Amino acid sequence: MRMRRNATLVFLLGFFAGPLLATGPRAQPPAQAPAQVTARGKIAEINVSGSQKYAREQIAEASGLKIGDMAGREEIQAAADRLAQLGVFSNVRYRFSSKGQDLEIEFQLEDAHTYPLYFDNFPWFSDKEITEAIKKDVPFFDGTAPEQGTVADDILRAMAALLKANDIHGEVEASLMVEPGTDVMVQYYHWNGPTLKTGTIEFTGPGTEFIKQDPGVTQLLRDLIGKPYSRFGVAIFAFEKVRPLFVNRGELRVKIEKPVARFVGDPGKPLPDNVRVTVAVEPGPVYHWGGVTWVGNGAFAAAELDRHLGLTEGMVAAGDRTQEAWENVRAEYLRRGYVDIKLSAEPVFDDAAERVSYRVTVAEGPVYRMGELVLTGLSLTAERRLIEAWKIPKGEIFDGLYFQNFLADARSKKIFGEMVVTYNEVGHWLRTNAEHRVVDVLLDFK
C-alpha cells in the first residue's frame, strides 16, 4: 500500500551563540564554536524544556541519546535533527556543557500546532478503533496529527497496517481540510481503493421525520445514493442542506453529528461495496426573537433600524427570517449611499427562556456620491439607451439599492425594451474612492 501526503511544513530555526545551537530539519552549526562544542564526553544528564505535550523521558528516547553514551557535537546535532523531523515541534534548540568528562544536554522545544483527525471513508472501523491502532504504533500520537514529519508518516503507516491486517487494499492519503460546519482545520484521511458506494442515508433523532418530506433534500439525497461514499461529503450535505431546515424553524442550536457508515448488502461477500449511512440529529429548542442591541450606528437611530428589521418581540426566530431582516437593514444603508456597509451579528442565547437576541456591530463607512458610468461591450445605440435609463445624476447620493435593481434589469434585458441586444452576462464593479467619497459604476456586457 502506497501512502501519500499533501502537506507542507516550515520549521522555525532558532540560534543561540556559543554552546547553544539551533536545529530545524537540519540546522547549520556556527562557523566557529568553543572548545567544549567539539569535545566528546559521557552523557550524564538529558534535560528537556518548553514542551507542554510530551514527557521528558519520551523526548529523550526519541532523540536517540541515552545516559552513559559517548557523544559530541555531531551526535547531539543528529539527535536534535531527529526531534525536529518528528513534526510535533515547531522549534528545536539545544545546548550542552561539560563537567570534566561528563556532558549535560538540554533540548529546548516549542510544540507545533497539531490537528484533529478526520477519517473519511473507513466504514470497516469506528473512529475509536482507528485511533487505538494508531496509538499502539505511534508513541508521539496524542489524538492529533502534525501537518507533516515522521510522526505524520507513522500515522499513515499505522493506518496502512490496520487495513492490510484486514485484507483491505488501497492507498491512504492525508491533507488539511476545514471540517464541515466549523472553522476547525483537521487532518483529513481518505482511502483510495475499490469503490464503496452509498447505499442509503438516514437522519435519525426526535423531530427529524419532516426531512423526508422536503422535496429539495429528497432530490439531493437521491443524487448521492449509488455514488462513492464520502463521510466528508455527507457531512457537507447535512450542514448545507439539512441544517437550514431546522434553523428556519427556529431550532438555531441544532446539533448534527458526524455521519456513521455501516455495510449493507450480501453478508456472504468478503467485502460488501455498499454502506448505510446514518446521521444523528438533535434539533434542540425553538428560539424566539428577543431583539437587537445596535453598536456603531450613526445614520439611523436604533428604533429606526428595529423597524426595518420587520421582526417583533416573541415571534419564532427563524433563520431565513432573521437573514432577511439583516438584508432589509443593509438595503436601507445602501439606499442612502453607504456602499461599504457591514453588519456583524452575534447571537446571545437565553436557553432558559428559549429566546435569542443579537448584538449587531455596524460599520457604516462613508456616504458615496455618483461618479462615472462606464460601459463596455455594447453598441453605441444600446449604450445610449442604457445611459438614458440610468437615473442617478453625477454628484448625487449613490443609491446602491437602485443599482442592484438596475443591474437585474440589465441582465434580463428588460431595460432595452424591444431593442435587440446580444450578450450573455453583465460584469459589474463599483469602483469606490473613499478619499473623495465617489463611486464609479462599471458594467461590462459579454
Describe the structure.
- Helix content is 28%, strand content 31%.
- It contains 11 helices and 20 strands.
- It has a 5-stranded mixed β-sheet, with helices on one face. It has a 5-stranded mixed β-sheet with strand order 2-5-6-3-4. Strands 11, 12, 13 and 14 form a 4-stranded mixed β-sheet that branches.
- A hairpin with a 4-residue loop joins strand 19 and strand 20.
- It starts with a strand and ends with a strand.
Give a quick rundown of the structure.
The chain is of the alpha/beta class. It has helices spanning 35-38, 56-63, 73-85, 127-137, 150-165, 215-224, 231-247, 302-309, 319-335, 380-389, 400-412, and strands at 3-6, 20-23, 41-49, 70-71, 89-99, 102-111, 115-119, 144-145, 171-178, 185-192, 197-204, 255-256, 260-264, 274-282, 288-295, 342-350, 355-363, 369-376, 426-433, 438-445. It folds into 5 domains: 3-111, Ubiquitin-like (UB roll), CATH 3.10.20.310; 115-192, Ubiquitin-like (UB roll) (Roll), CATH 3.10.20; 197-282, Ubiquitin-like (UB roll) (Roll); 288-363, Ubiquitin-like (UB roll) (Roll), CATH 3.10.20.310; 369-445, Roll (Ubiquitin-like (UB roll)).
Main sheet strand line-up: 1-9-10-7-8
Please state the overall shape, judged from the principal axes of the Cα atoms.
extended
Rg over CA atoms: 31 Å
> Overall pLDDT, averaged?
89
Strand content: 25-35%
Question: How would you classify the helix and strand content by structural class?
Answer: alpha/beta
> Helical segment tally?
11
- Look at the structure and give the CATH class of the largest domain: Alpha Beta
CATH homology-level superfamily of the largest domain:
membrane protein fhac
At the fold tier of CATH, the topology name of the largest domain is Ubiquitin-like (UB roll)
Estimate percent helicity. 25-40%
The residue ranges in which pLDDT falls below 50 over 5 or more consecutive positions are 1-24, 27-38
Integer tally of domains: 5
Largest sheet: 5 strands, mixed
The CATH architecture category of the largest domain equals Roll
Distance between the termini: 50 Å
How many beta strands in the DSSP annotation?
20
